[in-house]
């Protein structure tokens, strides 16, 4: 059986990294005599979508650069031939292929609405496929042990296949409706859909949005269109109460806080416009925007407003975003939330924020207000490999204030880094260029410089210095090429964001790898054993056309967003989807070269980074070990697994990690705990929320479930009951819920007994029980099901009772692991 043409195209899409080439083919025009599909969709469709199908759009597709690149070059013919040669394996695959082909040729429509009882229901109409109802019924009969009990019923003069979704009042059904295949799902969906089809209820054609966006001809061939209509939802649910204590709050009030009270709808179109693939999106609002919608409504700019960027740019992104205004908008929403929140609920947030600004040494809004609204991202090919010439340039409103804030910020960062982070200031062209140095990543040197009108941030100092030279007129700057100017002429000249991407850079790379991919595919087919030994793909590396042939018809892609009094709009014009900053003779070293160099360097970088993190984790364990020994000297034994408290269950008590806080220089932190209360009680809530640096493995989050977590847990011995065993048991470990272990009780020797191990199953560090001590219960004991393990390859690090830290392989003999996990098992332990 041959695969469908869409499946063939999907194969190409996968081969080119899911570039999403929207293509169609020439098919016979839709058969006459059927009712327009939209006549079957409910009037008040909150969500509407329509795909027109290739039969209606193929003529428009033939005009596009995409068609010329893939079809007129013969490349698609070869790909189709290759897919045709693959054997089919699915039962009834031919019928399935025909169904998929019909949908791609003729399209479908969808409408989802909310009924008078506030219950959603919807329909899907597969255009001109009346016979699809019987085809689907045949497929259902082939499904063994189907969860849905489908039945044939008569309703409204239709023969309907339907079933109830288990444990719900939701029904699902399909039938032939006026020349189409019709699906309905929801509460009372079948009856409601039939009422629309029979004209007893209005259909979507009379909906104002349909009349506004679909009744008139577009100036491009539409392949798909859809909307989300928020206004009827707001009208239907707006007066519903929101359960907030001591507040008479409605949905509309919440929407007003968020700034969504005047959001009307969002509409999207896509299709073909001349040689380009084209898409539009419109977000309509009424009245003055506020809250979230205000974040969309940014100040427009033109290309003339851009900073001087390098000559020959084929990829560039710029956007307008007022950071200070966004800050004010966010605080307005926060203050409104505080007004309706229970008394005191937001006090903690305001206090934490005030403490943050106090720690920073400046008000965050001052920093944001000193930055302008225009931001630009580009790659300077002349300044670095692997995209290291990348730079971000932002406008400046107040240069002295910005310098003061950033100087304060870097000083705080240096103090907190404990020598791991430093800065170097150098004079360049009469300005101060600041280089950031990270001890763990010495090969990366991010830099920034604040000029009077712009602040430039680069991954290397040269990217910043070259920007200063362009400001001074000592280096030439980018201006739009004829191709770019032609593309930009199709979109608004004022915008709130703009991106220019040349897809030829992307596809030049792909075409360079294509012959290799064909060879790899042939090798994979031979090695898989899933094909006849004599099978050969009917495509060879020589069948791939030269990249110039495919790229000749392509041109730069442009996307812009803009605003007006009615809302926000977005426009995209492209020849083929492309990836910004991906190679190209003008945007940097070719991607092929970069890929090879990255492939060579990345393992070394990763190994160096892993070694540094492993060393830091070992230091954490040593610090914990020293704290345990100091605790032993003070209290006559290692800490009990939980802080003793007969009134609390083990899982509710504070953990041994709280007990050793005074011995890791956290005495003040320890004294803040209420040792008689539950670990997550209101009294301890603030403390347990915070991560402890010594308890956090490098690379781990240190925070989860709303609490600070630990990357290190105590060893409780062997067996599920080990945390409850007495020290005299041969399966007991150093830690137990209700037992303190003394050094003299470790008969196997402190150098042969594990005390603490790394874990990736992080839990709150302050919680007693499984969160902080664990026994061995299931093999493999490391990186298996016991919670001991690490982010490092091959095993994990463990602290032994003598204070030593050792890396233990995940391949360790389970008997040996059990032996070193107990305090008096009496085993003879060799090397491990």
Automatic annotation (TrEMBL):
Transmembrane portions of the chain: none
Cited InterPro entries: DUF1559 (IPR011453), Pilin-like (IPR045584), Pre_pil_HX9DG_C (IPR027558)
Residue intervals of the DUF1559 domain: 606-765
Name of this chain's protein: DUF1559 domain-containing protein
